[in-house]
Design a protein that fits this description.
heterodimer; A: mainly alpha; ABC transporter involved in vitamin B12 uptake, BtuC; 15 helices; about 80% helix; about 0% strand; B: alpha/beta; Rossmann fold; 2 domains; 10 helices; 10 strands; about 25% strand; binds adenosine-5'-diphosphate; binds magnesium ion
């Protein structure tokens, strides 16, 4: 104890800082920031399951986690990089409709969903580069236009999508997943767990990103585009990546919604849904979601 | 690496903000750009660092033409800079600001960043260590975990220097690094710039503090209304009548002359 005090007084500032850093480093090593987030989400998902009295609550809970997932994608784009997209319902609905349509052509549901996610990511990659040259209101308008276009295609091509009436989603039931490991859950419960698990993974990934080299670049662009460039950050490329990542989140959420609901309508791709997602991100997540999610 | 500026120019709405400026900045030396407000010094930096595209002239690094390269490509070729109107990342801590400067050395890929794989975390630790060392050099180590938004103007100026240094640059452009610093801090910045040049880096400095400029510059370029009006060593510049005229006006220069002879 006495020995400790002497060293401390010998170099008060240095030891204090080093100890702080050391502590921080070891804590980070012990559990990655994303793992901590995952555990917090796991507890929340579990808590829900403990208190929900009926299938209705499970269904609402499922929607909550699906929205959480889509909004996490928006937070990556808006909170990390500072880009507003009013077209993410478009990516969401691409995920949803691909998951709904492909099983009618003999593709198994999980593969259909994967295809929808990849399709949304590919579209975001192709469209992102030119669109992301814009910023502020112009970007908002351009993404809004993209969302509307996707929505129009889906509501017009009735032969494929059922048009404005929507379509039923055949195929997979999450119950079977749990049956394989010997658990007998109701369908609503099974989807709740799947959605909660996916949201937890999504949040963990977003938190990992925030503290990583790529994430720092994104946050730098948020604060000063010109400084980010001066440090060698390829701003166009970084923005495009964030756009694709957030589109993937939206599409996974869309695919899950299609499967969990067993029914899908063009409204999921409507403008209002895009606005809802951004609103939820602004109200539900602070500008830097990582600051809240990974706060020590 | 030596930086060659050759006939560089740009006009904004007919006004030539920089007009045919040429000079060479050598490694291991501090080359200073001085001149009255609005002379075009910052605009010159913006041209050299790829923020603006020059309408005429060339920029060369070690003889290699880099005119018109994007800012991030110039950074990859060893150019770093600070900004007169601070461009820090206010939502980040001082440490994170500087860690961002390690971007070009970080080798982790996006996938390992997303999954939080050990590789990504290892890169982050490495960046943290070199950022900490740079903060130490800039005299900001104690403020490492303070949000940049809560730091003073003078501290932020030094934070930008630390962030530029950590890129591993060979050419460093400093736009009024001592602005907002008190006498002690100015002296520290002065020493830091000296040390950076001694490492063999090419330093180009814009500064209003004439004592500092005269003390640390090997070479001085004087701009007025976008044009280079004089160039030379500190002693030459101090006594150059064009320079005195630009700073004091022709009338003031005549009076200074008269006072000197009286
Ligand atoms: N982006 C711009 N658009 C229009 N005028 C500009 C721009 N940037 C600089 N200028 C003008 O160029 C001139 C030089 O400015 P600047 O390079 O900032 O001077 P200094 O740094 O020497 O004080 C000023 O007249 C300024 O108004
Ligand atoms: Mg200036």
């Amino acid at each position: 104890m006495a020995g400790q005090e002497t060293t401390t007084s010998a170099a008060p500032v240095d030891t204090g800082r080093d100890a702080y850093l050391q502590n921080k480093v070891t804590r980070r090593r012990a559990i990655g920031p994303g793992l901590g987030t995952f555990l917090v989400f796991a507890v929340l998902v579990g808590l829900g399951a403990l208190i929900f009295p009926s299938s209705y609550f499970y269904r609402v809970g499922t929607l909550v986690w699906i929205n959480t997932l889509a909004v996490t994608g928006i937070v990556v784009l808006l909170g990390y990089v500072g880009l507003v997209s009013l077209g993410h319902a478009g990516f969401f609905t691409i995920g949803a409709y691909t998951t709904a349509i492909l099983p009618n052509y003999g593709v198994p549901s999980p593969l259909a969903m994967l295809s929808g996610v990849l399709l949304a990511g590919l579209l975001a990659l192709v469209v992102g580069r030119p669109i992301l040259k814009l910023s502020g209101y112009y970007l908002a308008i351009a993404t809004l236009g993209l969302g509307m276009l996707i929505w129009m295609v889906l509501s017009k091509e009735a032969w494929l999508t059922g048009g404005p009436d929507g379509m039923t989603v055949s195929g997979m039931n999450a119950r079977n997943l749990f049956k394989m490991v010997g658990l007998n859950l109701k369908s609503a419960e099974a989807w709740y767990w799947v959605a909660g698990f996916t949201a937890a993974i999504g949040a963990a990934i977003a938190v990992n990103l925030a503290g990583s080299p790529s994430g720092r670049s994104l946050r730098a662009i948020h604060d000063s585009d010109v400084a980010a460039r001066s440090l060698g950050i390829d701003v166009a490329r970084a923005k495009s990546r964030a756009f694709v990542i957030s589109a993937l989140y939206a599409a996974v959420a869309g695919g899950l919604l299609a499967l969990a609901n067993g029914y899908i309508t063009p409204e999921t791709g409507g403008f209002m849904h895009s606005v809802e997602m951004v609103t939820m991100a602004v109200l539900g997540g602070p500008p830097r979601c990582s600051a809240r999610w990974s706060a020590p | 690496m030596s930086l060659d500026i050759d006939g560089l120019g740009i006009a904004f709405g007919g006004i030539k903000a920089v007009d045919g400026v040429s000079f060479t900045a050598k490694p291991g030396e501090v080359t200073s750009i001085i001149g009255p407000n609005g002379a075009g010094k910052t605009t010159l930096f913006n041209l050299v660092s790829g923020v603006y595209r020059a309408s005429s002239g060339r920029v060369r690094i070690d003889g290699q033409d880099v005119t018109g390269l994007a800012a991030h490509d110039l950074a990859r070729r060893g150019m770093a800079r600070t900004f007169q109107n601070l461009q820090v990342f206010p939502q980040m801590s001082a440490l994170d600001n500087v860690m961002t400067g390690c971007h070009m050395q970080e080798k982790s890929n996006l996938l390992s960043d997303l999954l939080g794989l050990p590789g990504a975390r290892c890169e982050t630790e490495r960046s943290r260590a070199s950022a900490m060392a740079a903060l130490e050099r800039a005299g900001l180590a104690d403020l490492a975990h303070r949000p940049a938004s809560e730091m003073s103007y003078g501290q932020l100026k030094r934070l930008e220097i630390a962030r530029a240094l950590v890129t591993g640059c060979t050419i460093l452009l400093l736009d009024e690094p001592a602005a907002g610093c008190n006498a002690v801090e100015t002296r520290e910045v002065d020493d830091l710039i000296h040390a950076i040049a001694d490492e063999g880096k090419t330093v180009v400095l814009i500064e209003h503090d004439m004592r500092m400029v005269m003390r640390i510059s090997s070479h001085i370029v004087v701009l007025d209304q976008g044009r280079k009006i004089a160039e030379g060593g500190p002693e030459e510049i101090r006594t150059n009548p064009h320079v005195i005229a630009a700073y004091l006006g022709a009338h003031g220069a005549a009076e200074a002359e008269a006072a000197a002879h009286a």
